[in-house]
Amino acid sequence: MGEQKRKQDSKSNFIFGKKNYKWMFIGLGFIAFGFILMSGGGSDDPNVFSPEIFSFRRIRLAPTLVLIGFGIQIYAILLNPDKKKSK
Fold first, then answer.
1. Cα distance between residue 45 and residue 52, in whole Å
2. Largest Cα span, the chain
3. Which is more confident, 10 or 18?
4. Cβ neighbours of residue 42 under 8 Å, at least 6 residues apart?
5. End-to-end alpha-carbon separation of the chain, Å?
6. How far is CA 44 from CA 31, 50, 67, 82, in A?
7. Based on the number of CB atoms within 10 Å of its own CB, is 22 exposed (0-12), middle (13-18) or buried (19 or more)?
8. What whole-number distance in Å separates Cα of residue 76 and Cα of residue 16?
9. For residues 27 and 16, what is the distance between their CA atoms, to the nearest angstrom?
10. DSSP labels for the chain?
11. Phi, psi torsion values for 86, nearest 5 degrees
12. Per-residue confidence band for 85, with pLDDT thresholds at 50, 70 and 90
C-alpha cells in the first residue's frame, strides 16, 4: 500500500513548473536567434577576403544575444514556480 502511494506522489511532482518552461523556451529562442545572426558572411571563392565577417552583427550583437539567452536559461532553472507573492 505504501509503495503505491509513493508512486502516485512521484508521478504528480514535476521538477519544473509552467513558468520555468516558458522562460527556458524564451532563452532557447535568444540562443537560436544569436547563432542565426552569427551565421553567413563567408565568401564562395577562397581567394577573396570578405570583411563582412567583422560586422557589428557578428562580433557584438550575436554573442551578446547568446549570452543573454544563457543567462535566461540559468534564471529559468533557478526560478521557484511555487513561490507565492506576499503582500
1. 14
2. 75
3. 18
4. 50, 53
5. 42
6. 27, 10, 30, 53
7. middle
8. 9
9. 15
10. -HHHHHHHHHHH--SS-HHHHHHHHHHHHHHHHHHHHHS----SSTTS--GGGGSHIIIIIHHHHHHHHHHHHHHHHH--TTPPP--
11. -105, 140
12. low
Say which amino acid occupies 13. Answer: N
Which residue is listed with cell 513548473? 17
* pLDDT, tens digit, 9 for 90 and up, residues 29-56: 999 999 999 997 777 788 888 888 889 9
C-alpha cell at 68: 543573454
Angle between helices 62-78 and 18-38 (to 10 degrees): 170
